[in-house]
Every structure is written in structure tokens, then in C-alpha cells.
């Protein structure tokens, strides 16, 4: 193999590929990226459950295939100062050359590298705006369960319809949903349950892509996303995402509108005092026009904090896990948010005042 | 009932086969490669000479097909020479360990959670996705019903229409008919399936009539391609609802739409139903799910405990299967209790523990008073209760009276003289004669036998 490419292109490909490599796999080849130079250069990696395949513009003088450990490769590329990089195979190892620098990376026999077939892409594909997909997944990602014991809760639910794309995730303690309406997608409609791990890998890829829209299709229990020059495939899980609209309270007994930053700051302060439990008490007294938060722990002390808020309804004292509330703050596109309470032991609904697409539901602590 | 059918291919056999094949395969590959590619693989099913190997992802599938297919086939054929082909399928359930990650903030146990369980039922068709054929344990007792259900899926609306499944509570009727719905829903995305209990149907109808939308109700129900109605016995004696069901039945049947019913009795013995409806129930295929036999109960227990990832010695399984009769639901309850108890104790349960659990939790042949038996049987034959105790020798009274005597003797072991005394001071020889007569007649008269069977379930319910 002998080729030249630009640092920018190969670096972006290698850091994305690095995210997908297998960790703690018994086969050393799975922690590698495969550089496959045929008529174009492909950078590939896989952890057996998801796989990525990125084509990189390069000038190929001699064809060849070589596999090198992903971390070492991307670290090497990162440290290079010049624009042009040449990759050569030298007695089976990879020689990375740039102005003044020469690095030889020991390669690993690539016969065992998994076969990543491209498959038939023509059937059942839809196209969706990249930013819609990225923002949608990011908006709900943190709400999915970290455990795959119940696959539907350990996954992100994505439903693509003609005029509406729904993203949702829940770990049964809280639920995040973003519904994007309007013309965001075209082609086939579909529903997917993408495991959290792969959704995170996808976010990483989408965040580093440039194109305006991406293509999505599914075949053979795989979910395939094509963005720019990259093709990401991950397994989807079978399951039925809970029909959660039933648990969303329709009416509130108490409502409060606050500035998002004020509220986030209040939670940040409360977190310091909440100790290991991470409990925060919210106290809303509309008659006295009070909206406050309290937190205490025997080791640290206690704090109580009030912020300006427009409040209405009945008085309520309710306790939450602090992380569950603060998790959703960064993804709300609005300066002010409304909190809708519907009594103790009923979920709190958080929405952005000017971000109607997003909804967050969180269960309080049992008293 | 959550494991693969035991009749066609016992899961243990498939597993054993694969375990033995893996030993062979391991010898033919490097350790690292074996651990990578054969982790989380299994034989999912086997039909005849084809073995279906389930693999965790498409990447693994392609690798096995490309690189290890010969090795796998060879290893399998060495164990069973009838195997000709191996197919690979990606199983879509999650790999249990893969995505397990430690998280900084773990949910505090006191955090309330959404009640999601109840939301899994699809509101459009009321089907619970938990009930599938994969989780239906097939044994000799329900083989017929299972085969009939499978048959209607091949050619819905044509093979057996309607399919009528009957059997006592807890024998798996609902599971089977919901499995039909779920299977159909999966196979034909554009067809409409509805699962409804007869009670719900009646309530819907009443509401529709009250709101003056009776026509809307008709249209709504007539749009379905498969209609599954559970527990039809509950709309006994509801004249208008039955009439509506009758018309709905005709409309669907004429258009070759599949209809499935379940009930606790054979259509001929459904009290409070009009003849024309009963006739229609019997028009297609009637399959009974009787009490599971002991082998099936053993198989169900084994399937259940395997699903719990649990091990119980065979003699205890045998004991449970023998002592917990009839109701599968009860059987599950006892098993759950045993599993729970042994988890609490942290060790395997002893024979004595199981004995105690079973004794406390199984409803004994509960004592029904003689008056109650008389009341129920006379109700069944629609004759006044009083007449049983009277000296009358009318034909329509004599037969029920004899049946009452027979039941009291057979089911409750009441002595002949006290039966006679209770039923209006009759001589014990009269009672003996009655019992003998019924016993004798049952041998030749099957309809009487069925009647007795229903009366028995009526008394014990």
C-alpha cells in the first residue's frame, strides 16, 4: 500500500472509527482500524455489533490493506503538523510519513478482520436532515436505561414519518421526547429501537459530519446511516417501545415558569449539598409566590434557594433525584421553562416555553 | 409458559447438540477467534435436516458463513448425520452483557417509576405482545388446539372458521388466541386484528347504542380481518348483544375473515345462548384444551424454571406436577413462590419446604354444602330447587336428582344413607341405584358424560 492524503480527512475518519472499535475483545484485530486502499481508501472498524466504514479522499499509488491499532493510529495522526500525510506499508507494517516525521506502526494480520458487507442499499431507505437526527438523539439519549435487561428501555426510539419524526427514550424513572414536525425526511417511513451504545456512536459520527442530510435504511436487523462519506451500521433490538402517551399528565395542579439558567444554577448549588442521595426538594407555593429548592445531607450541610418564578395552582412539596431533573436542561432550546406538577407521586412535566418539540417527564421520589 | 414448544424440538436437545458441536468447533479454531465469534450463539430451531443457528449480529453471521461454515456443518454432522444444512439468523433480542455499563448515578430505589408494564398492550388491537407461539408450551393435552391455531394462520378465514377454543380457566386459552393475533399482526402488517373480551364487546355495544351510534359500532367491528373474542360465555343471556354478535359473525364470515372464540365450555353446553349463535360457534373447528396431563405439567414446570435460570431436582418437579393439578396459573404461582423462597434463603429448597408451600397454597377440594350442589345443578337444568327434595317422579326432575346423588357420592364421598336423608328422606338403596344408573349410562351416553363434566366444573368453580 502506498498513498497520500490530507491530515484533516484521515484524522476525522480515524477518530470516528476509533469510537466504534471493540474494547476488551479477545480478538486483537477488533481494536484495530482497517485501512483498505482499493480504488479509494476506506477506513473501517467494528465491535461486531456496530461497524463503520468511511471513505477518505486520497491519491493511491499502490493498493493494499493493513490493520493497525486504532488508538495508536489516531494519536499518531493527531500529532502530525503538516497537511500532507503519506501512508505506506513497509515489510507488513504501516509507515506514516509527513514533513520531517516518520512513524512506523506495527500492524496486525488482517485476515481475521470481519467482513463488512455493503448489502443492498436500494430498498427501504429514507433521508433525514442531519441536524434533526443529531439533535433528536441528543435530546433523549441520556434518558435511556444503561442496562439492556429490558432492551426497549436501553434503546432510543426513533420513528420516522412523512411529516413527523419522533425521538424518545426512557429508563422508567424519566422520559424524554422530541417530536420534530415538518418536512424533515423523505422516503420510507420506519421505526427503530437503537441501543444506547450505538446511538452514542452515531451522535459522535453525526456531530463530525458535514452534509445536510443523511440516509437511513434498515435491513436484516441492522440500522444503517449514511452520512457524507461514512456508513454506519448497528444492530437494532426487537421490542415494543411503551405507549407512553398514557402516562403524560394532561392537567396540572401546579405550574411554574422559571428562567432555565436560574433553575439550572439552583440545582447546581443544591447538588453540592445533596450528598450521596442526590435528592432535591422543590417547594412551590403559588399564594406566597415562592419557588424554592432545598437540599441537605448530614455530612455537608443544607441549603435553601429561591428564584423568581411565575407560579399558579396549589401548594406542593415534592422531592426528586437531582440528576434526573438537571439532565434535560442542556437540550431545552428555550430561555424559560415550565414545570407542570400534578400532585405527589405523579410525574413532573418539563417543557421549554419556546421549544414546543421537547417534553421531559420525571417521576418524584416516593415519600 | 415462556419457552419454545417442547413437542417439536425439545430446547434442551438443541442446546446439548450445540454445546457438543462447540466442543468440536473449538478444537478447529484459535481460542481468541472461538471466543469472539461463537459467543452468544445458539441453535434457535431445527426442522428436519436444517439447523438454524442464531447469532448476535449480522457481522458475526457473515463471518460464520464465510469462514466457519464448513467447520460448523462438519461438527454438527458428526453428532447427527441427518443434518444437511445450517442456516444463520440474527436474533434480535439484546445480548445480555454487551451494553452493561456502570453509571455514576444509579436510580435510588425509592424513586418512583412509570407504570410502563401496562403500556405494552397495543391499544389498537388490545394484544399483549408477551403472548406468542414461541412461549407457548405444547403438550399432548393442547396439541390439537395448537395445531388448529397454527392451521388457521396458514389460510386465515378458510381453513377453520370460526375457531372455537374451550377449556377451564388457566389452561392457556388466552395465551393461544393472543398468539394467533400477534403472529398474524407480524406476518401481515396491513391487516387489522382485534382482540376483545366478550364483556368489552358488550360494553362497547351498550355505549354505542346509548350514544346513538349503533351503526358506527357495526362499521368499526366489521373492518377487522381477524377478530378474536375471549370468554364468550360472559355474554350469556344478553339478547341484544348476542344478536349484534350474530350479525357481526355473519358479516365477517361471509367475507372470509377469520374469527376466533374462546370459552370455558363447549358451544353446545353454553347456557344462555341462542341456538343460532351456538350453531355458528360450532360451524368451524372446536378444540378443547383439557386439563394438562402430568407429562405436560412436568414439561411446563421445567420450561418455567429454566426461564428463571433455576434448578430444581427431578423428584421435586415430579412432586409439584403431581400435587398441583389442572390450573397452569396455579402451577406458575407455586413455582414463583419456590423460586422466591430459595432466593430468600440463598440455598436450594428442600422437599419439605416444597411440601409445605404446596400444602398452603393449593386450594383444597373445597367443601361445598349439599344445598349448594343441589342449587347449582337444579339451576343448570332450570328446574326449581324445591322439586329435588319433593317426592315427585317427573322425568325432568328425576334425572337431575340422580345426577345430584351421583355427584355427591363421587365428588364429595358423602355416604349413601346421608345423601338419601338430605334429599328428602330417601332410602339409601334408592341412592345406590341412582348412582349405579348414572355410572352405567355414562359409559354409553357421551352427551351425559359431557354434561357431568360441565356440572363438575360448575360445582368446583
TrEMBL record, chain A:
The DNA polymerase III beta sliding clamp C-terminal domain, residue ranges: 246-365
Keywords (alphabetical) are: Cytoplasm, DNA replication, DNA-binding, DNA-directed DNA polymerase, Nucleotidyltransferase, Transferase
Name the source's superkingdom: Bacteria
Where does the UniProt annotation locate this protein? Cytoplasm
Q: Where is the DNA polymerase III beta sliding clamp N-terminal domain?
A: 1-116
Instruction: Check the record and name the Pfam families matching this protein.
Output: DNA_pol3_beta, DNA_pol3_beta_2, DNA_pol3_beta_3
Q: Could you state a single Gene Ontology molecular function term?
A: 3'-5' exonuclease activity
TM spans, by residue? none
Q: Which residues form the DNA polymerase III beta sliding clamp central domain?
A: 133-243
CDD domains from the UniProt entry = beta_clamp
- How the protein assembles, per its UniProt entry? Forms a ring-shaped head-to-tail homodimer around DNA.
Name of the protein in question: Beta sliding clamp
Its source organism is Candidatus Magasanikbacteria bacterium GW2011_GWA2_50_22
Upper lineage is:
Bacteria, Candidatus Magasanikiibacteriota
Automatic annotation (TrEMBL), chain B:
User: Which species is this UniProt entry from?
Assistant: Candidatus Magasanikbacteria bacterium GW2011_GWA2_50_22
Chain ranges passing through the membrane: none
Decide whether keyword ATP-binding is in the record: yes
Subunit structure, briefly? Oligomerizes as a right-handed, spiral filament on DNA at oriC.
| Name assigned to this protein | Chromosomal replication initiator protein DnaA
| Residue ranges, annotated region (Domain IV, binds dsDNA) | 343-461
Per the database record, which ranges form the Chromosomal replication initiator DnaA C-terminal domain? 369-438
Residue numbers spanned by region Domain I, interacts with DnaA modulators: 1-95
InterPro entries assigned to the protein according to its UniProt record, in alphabetical order: AAA+_ATPase (IPR003593), Chromosome_initiator_DnaA (IPR001957), Chromosome_initiator_DnaA-like (IPR020591), Chromosome_initiator_DnaA_CS (IPR018312), DnaA_C (IPR013159), DnaA_dom (IPR013317), DnaA_N_dom (IPR024633), DnaA_N_sf (IPR038454)
* Stretches the record annotates as Domain III, AAA+ region: 126-342
* A GO CC annotation given for this chain: plasma membrane
Where is it located?
Cytoplasm
Ordered alphabetically, the record's keywords are: ATP-binding, Cytoplasm, DNA replication, DNA-binding, Lipid-binding, Nucleotide-binding
GO BP annotations of the record are: DNA replication initiation; regulation of DNA replication
User: What family name appears in the similarity comment?
Assistant: Belongs to the DnaA family.
**Signal peptide (from-to):** none
